[in-house]
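[User] Once you have settled down, look closely at the record that follows, and write a paragraph about the fold.
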Amino acid sequence: MREKKLVYVPMAADLVHPGHIHIIQVSAELGEVMVGLFTDEAIASYKKPPAMHYEDRRIVIENIKGVSQVVPQTTRDYEDNLRKYQPDYMVHGTDWQKGPLADVREKAIRIMAEWGGKIVEPTYTEGISSSQIKQRLRG
């Protein structure tokens, strides 16, 4: 039995912004935060490749207050890491409730339920995303 609840937080975190910090803060209130950081290949499987490589993003994320550990998230689907670590909670913003990740969400809910794990969905931080920031940088 773990001393603290394990909280799994998947993210690409190519450009860290207040939405990422909010998710990590909410997660830290629930227990020990494990960020499943998408590898470059995993990101490229569903959108443009990241501006920063995995190792650079890992260094940034593991130095954010509240993050206990960072593990590779090698696919768009969370099944492998959820089964491997069996977290008590998985935290993801509400942006995945509709759109291309809705099927991934439903699968994660089913998997987490196998051991009594719960999905926590803080309200998505409107008006800011890594994609929007990149678009503004392009001018």
In short: The domain at 6-138 is CATH 3.40.50.620 (Rossmann fold).
